[in-house]
Amino acid sequence: MQEKTIDCIGEMCPIPILKAEQELKALGNQDKVHIKTDHSCTMQSVVKHFQNKLGYPSSVQEIDYGIWLITIEKRTK
Q: Which of 3, 16, 48, 55 fits 8 for a cystine, CB–CB 3.0-4.6 Å?
């Protein structure tokens, strides 16, 4: 299983979504992309996009005050 981390500190949507989509294209089933962000609106948009649009399980963890780590797991059918 592969895992990639994208640093999106200071970046607003849609940049984190576009970067995550690019990384996920190169990954296989059950591989994960982690996005590090400091924008709560980005956190909500990313999770909503990947769970609702693509059906990828996503979770969020606050790793520092005002810093979140979003985990997206690629699931293929």
A: 16
Nearest to 57 by CA among 33, 73, 77: 73
Q: What is the pLDDT of residues 52-61, one digit of tens each?
A: 999 999 999 9
The SS3 assignment for 39 reads coil
Encoded tokens for 52: 């609702």
Q: Provide the domain limits for residue 31.
A: 3-73
Structure tokens at 20: 């995550």
Q: Bridge partners of 34?
A: 5, 71
Question: How many Å apart are CA 54 and CA 8, to the nearest integer?
Answer: 21
Specify the CATH number for the domain of residue 19. 3.30.110.40
Q: Look at the pTM and tell me if it is higher than 0.85.
A: yes
